[in-house]
Fold this protein.
Amino acid sequence: MPIAELQVLADIPRHWAANRPGKAATVFEDRVVSWADFDRHATQVANGIIEAGVKPQARVAYLGKNSDLYFQLLFGAAKSNTVMVGINWRLAPPEVEYIVNDARIEVLFVEEEFFGLIGEIRERLATVTLYVAMSGRGHGWEEYVSWRDGQSAADPMLPVDSEDICVQLYTSGTTGRPKGVQLPNRGFIVQRYGDEIAGEWSKWHDDDVIMIPMPVFHVGGTGWGFQGFYNGSTQVILGQAEPGLIIETIQKYRVTKVFVVPAVLQFMLQHEASKTADFSHVRVVLYGASPIPEDVLVRALATFKCPFVQLYGMTETSGSVTFLPPEVHVAGSTKLRSCGIPFHGIEIIIGDAAGNAQPPGQVGEIMIRAPGIMKGYWNMPEATAEAVKDGWYHSGDAGYMDDEGFIYVYDRVKDMIVSGGENIYPAEVESALSKHPAVADIAVIGVPSDRWGEEVKAVVVKEKGAHVTEDELIAFARTQIAGFKTPKSVDFVDSLPRNPSGKLLKKELREPYWAGRERRVG
C-alpha cells in the first residue's frame, strides 16, 4: 500500500532509517549496509554534491557497473535535488563523451575499470568540475569513500517537488543519437500506488530480499531497484547478470523476488547449478523486455516452482505499465504471447494514425497515459512533442488488444516490413517460427527486394545438435501464418546481437543487407 510519508525519492532512506535502522538495506559482494548507515551515506553524498557547487536540478553521473555505491549516489542526488544520470559502461568513448556533454554533467563518479576511458575524452568534457573515483585514485581524483565520509552527516532537507526530475536515463541509441529521458519524482512514487493490488504476487513483506542483476543505466536495473527501496526490503546487487552468480546469490541470501530478462533466465536454466539449486524461498520471478518462449517457461516453472509474471514498460514510462499474471503462465496458453493488462491507474489504448482508439483485434500503436510518463527528452522539444501528445505517450510499439483487455505487442512500428503493399510485423513471424523445435533464437527483418520493395528474412540460431534446412523452416512457417508473411530466405548464425537489456539490435542485424543503399526500407 502507498506509504504516506514517501512523496519524493529523498524521503525513502529517511523513512526506513527511522523504521528499520538495523535491517540491511543493501548487500554487494558481502558488504552489508544497514538502513541507518545507508541514509547517512546518502546524506553525506548530498552534502558533497552541494559543496561542489551543484545547483538543484543540475546533473551528476555514474559510470560503472552495478554497485551498492550507485544507489548511495542515486539517493544522495535525490537529497540534493540534483539529477542522477546513469551512463552505459558498454559505450565507446565518443558515445560517453556525447552523453556527458549533452547532459552537462558537473560531478562524474567513475569506477576504476573506466578510468582509461575517461582519460581519453577528459579534455573534451566541457562541464565536469569534479571527478570522484569509486575505488582507487584515477588521475589523482579523490577516492569515493574518503570524499563521502569527509562530508557532513546533517541532512540538508532541501525542498523537492514531485515534478522535479530525479533520474535521467539515455535510450540505447539504436537509431541516431541517444535521447535523455527525464523522469520526475512522481513517476517513481505515484506509479507504485496501484502495484500492490495487482495480485498476491505483487504484495511486499517485511522479510523481502530482492536481487538487482540488470544494469542500473537501464530502467530494468534502477527502476526495479527502486521498487525494493520504496518497500523497505533488502537489495542484493550484482555487478553483472552472470547466470552462475545469480543462482548462487539467490540461495546465499534467500532472495524472494527476482527480475531478469528471458535471455538471462534461459542461460540460468542451462547452467549446471540450476539442477540442484534451492529456490524454495523465491516468491515470484518477474521478467521483461520480451515474452517468454513456452519451452523456457515449462522448464522455469519446474525449476523455480513459484509464480511467473511478465512486465511491460519502457524508460519513458518509468518502468512497467502492464503485467501478465501468473495464472496465464501455463503451457498452451495463448495469453503467453501477451504482455498483459494495465496496472491500476494506467490507461492504454491501441491508436490509429490519428491517435483514435482502435477496437479489439485491430493493430495500431500502443499509447499510454500514466503517472510515470517522462517529463520529456532532455533538450529535445520536437522529439518530446512527437512522443507525448495530449498526455498520451506514443510508444512506437505496434500491437492490439483482445476482448479481455490483454495487450499483444507485434513489433516496433519502425520495424514493420512493407512488402508488395502488405504490412508485415516481424514479431508475428518470429512467434510462428519459434515453435519449430530446431529454433533456439530468431529475428525477422526486412531486406531489399527489387520486386516487392522489401521481403522477409529470418535469421536463426539453431538448437544445439539440431539439423534443419532453410526450405524446411519456410515450409513450416507456411503452416503457421499466411503465405505473404513467410520468410523468403533464412540465414543461420551462431548468435544474435542484443543490447544489455536483452533486446535485439535489429538495426545492426539489418545493416549488412542494406549497406550501400540510400534508403533502409523498401
User: Anything to note?
Assistant: Residues 445 and 510 are 7 Å apart (CA to CA). DSSP finds 15 helices and 27 strands in the chain.
